[in-house]
Amino acid sequence: MSGYKRIVIGARGPYVECEISQLNNAVLRESSESHYYYLELRSEPDDVKIYIQAKPVNYANYVPGMCYVSPFELFDENGVILIDPLPRRHG
After folding, report:
1. What is the average pLDDT across 46-74?
2. Residue 68 predicted with pLDDT over 70
3. What DSSP string describes the chain?
4. What is the pTM of this model?
5. How open is the CA angle 27-44-42, to the nearest 5 degrees?
6. What pLDDT score does 25 carry?
7. What's the CA angle centered on 34, arms 39 and 32, to 5 degrees?
8. Contact 18, 66 (CB under 8 A)
9. Mean pLDDT of 61-76
10. Interior CA angle at 77 toward 52 and 88, to 5°?
11. Does the bond joining 64 to the residue before it have cis omega, within 30 degrees of 0?
12. Backbone torsion region of residue 59, taken as left when φ is above 0, otherwise alpha when ψ lies between -120 and 50, otherwise beta
């Protein structure tokens, strides 16, 4: 992934928004999971989940045609995770 457009924060947490051209010709495969609002892809060989938004939703400002990746699934060229997952709140 090279660059991004913006960070979108919705009901399901933060997502990095980018255009498909910013995925650096990553090898992508379509997931067997079926979703109404987005197409789920997986990168090869690292299995990062990538969403391509298909329809608008009311819980976040996702743009149809744009790609979304959880920042917690991103890592650098050495395989080091860029952002540690947030701890879950209890209570």
Report:
1. 93
2. yes
3. ----SEEEEETTEEEEEE-GGGGTT-EEEE-S---SSEEEEEEETT--EEEEE-S--SSS---TT-EEE-GGG-B-TTS-BSSPPPPPP--
4. 0.85
5. 90
6. 67
7. 90
8. yes
9. 92
10. 60
11. no
12. alpha
Q: Which residue has the tokens 């690292």?
A: 46
Q: Which amino acid is at 70?
A: S
Q: Kindly state the tokens that stand for 66.
A: 């744009």
Higher local confidence (pLDDT), 38 or 34: 38
Residue 41 has a pLDDT of 92
Distance of alpha carbon 89 from alpha carbon 77, whole angstroms: 31
For the chain, what is the radius of gyration of the CA atoms?
13
Both tokens of 7, joined, read 């960070």
pLDDT at 45: 81
What is the amino acid identity at position 85? P
Both tokens of 46, joined, read 């690292």
